[in-house]
Specification:
The protein has 153 residues and is mostly helical. The chain is 53% helix and 8% strand. It has helices spanning 3-12, 27-40, 54-67, 73-82, 92-103, 126-146, and strands spanning 48-52, 107-109, 114-118. The longest helix is centred in the C-terminal third of the chain and has 21 residues, at 126-146. The radius of gyration is 18 Å and the shape is elongated.
Amino acid sequence: MNRLALLAVLAAGCAHWPKGTPPGQDADANAIAQALAKQHGVTARPIAVDLLDQRAFRARVAEQAKQDDTKGLADEARAWRALGLVHGDIDLAATLRDVMVEQIAAYYDPRRHVLVVPKTQRETSQFDTRQVMAHEVEHALQDQRFGFPKLDR
């Protein structure tokens, strides 16, 4: 089954988000994980999910952006300035953090081994939400199967 067909099946298979899911888990995320694992011929362990209100989600994204390696961004800004791609002073770390806070719909945190999802994501169209979840669950499965290298080196 190709990925588009799998996403269509997943989107059609859920009429609503489940209530009463155990804390730290999400029935939809784990159903998606099982479907993707079956497609790949592997097994999936349960995936932890942090479901956060919008304010907490934005704070977590900003925290994640600060933890990411930004050491080379000053050199990159100088190179961009030399190439005429940007003018004046630019704080790429702050710009990157602002863009991440604004644009990220959900993400897999490999340091904590958890999907981080804003509650508002559940208010969007069911198909869009399940596409985002399937994408992030894929990262969780990759981490389970292969592990991610230490990101803080």
